[in-house]
């Protein structure tokens, strides 16, 4: 009798241990999640809840890494260089937004200014010389004569930078201007800068270039198409 009871008790222990092991053991790899929690079989790895791409594929959320390790690109912003007026093949006039009956002119033997008559060179051709950089060539009316180029001039004595005319040299940093489309601006409205100094109007000094730090640029400019650029 004692031997029979001992064998029966040992058998119960073995059965209990097997049952516990079957309950706690997770499934083998590839058989589904442990603990019986279901996950979508066709959902993209790393997708945020509710975020899917318009095509139904992998989400385009910032920070998601595709299999090749490259970051998913955000929607590209329009660039100024897409404008045909910045191809070097069109001539333009430039007017400061907010100016009244005046446009930009590179005065003969002088500096860039705003005028309301026909003085100086008022026809310009922005010609690409690098990513986002341009020589701004200045011509007399109709695009005649040899061009001169905008060049940043530092007069010293704490006076502000300004633009004057000079012989065109694509390798001169003082002649390589950045032209940037104004966010939420009007048609062909641009900011003009050179090495972090922005072209702006000063009530005291006229057109100057100034480093603005965190302040927004004070002046923007509208480009107006006037025809094909001179063939030179």
Write a brief structural summary.
The N terminus is likely disordered. The protein has one helix and twelve strands; from the N terminus they run αββββββββββββ. β5 and β6 form a beta hairpin.
Q: Your description of this structure?
A:
The protein has 232 residues and is mainly beta. The protein is 10% helix and 33% strand. It has one helix and twelve strands; from the N terminus they run αββββββββββββ. The strands form two sheets. Strands 1, 4, 5, 6, 7, 8, 9, 10, 11 and 12 form a ten-stranded antiparallel β-sheet that branches. Strand 5 (133-140) and strand 6 (144-153) form a beta hairpin. The chain is globular, with a radius of gyration of 34 Å.
Low-confidence stretches: 1-79
Helix content: under 10%
Beta-strand portion reads 25-35%
Assembly state here?
A: single chain
Summing up helix and strand content along with how strands pair, one would put the structural category as mainly beta
Series of secondary-structure elements, N-terminal to C-terminal: HEEEEEEEEEEEE
Count of discrete alpha- or pi-helical segments spanning 4 or more residues: 1
Backbone CA Rg: 34 Å
Task: Assign an overall shape.
Answer: globular
According to DSSP, the number of beta strands is: 12
The separation of the N and C termini measures: 117 Å
Average pLDDT over all residues: 74
- Main pleated sheet: 10 strands, antiparallel
């Amino acid at each position: 009798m004692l031997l029979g009871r001992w064998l029966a008790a040992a058998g119960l222990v073995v059965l209990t241990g097997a049952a516990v092991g079957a309950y706690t053991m997770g499934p083998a790899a590839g058989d589904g999640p442990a603990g019986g929690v279901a996950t979508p079989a066709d959902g993209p790895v790393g997708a945020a809840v509710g975020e899917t791409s318009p095509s139904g594929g992998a989400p385009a959320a910032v920070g998601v890494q595709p299999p090749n390790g490259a970051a998913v690109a955000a929607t590209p912003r329009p660039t100024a260089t897409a404008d045909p007026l910045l191809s070097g093949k069109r001539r333009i006039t430039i007017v400061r937004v907010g100016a009244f009956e005046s446009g930009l002119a590179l005065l003969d033997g002088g500096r860039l200014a705003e005028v309301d008559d026909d003085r100086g060179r008022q026809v310009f051709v922005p010609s690409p010389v690098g990513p986002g950089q341009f020589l701004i060539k200045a011509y007399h009316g109709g695009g005649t004569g040899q061009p001169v180029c905008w060049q940043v001039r530092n007069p010293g004595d704490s006076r502000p930078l300004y633009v004057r005319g000079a012989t065109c040299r694509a390798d001169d940093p003082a002649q390589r201007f950045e032209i940037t489309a104004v966010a939420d601006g009007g048609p062909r409205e641009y900011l003009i800068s050179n090495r972090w100094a922005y072209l702006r109007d000063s009530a005291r000094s006229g057109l100057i270039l100034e480093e603005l730090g965190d302040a927004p640029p004070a002046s923007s400019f509208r480009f107006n198409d006037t025809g094909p650029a001179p063939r030179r």
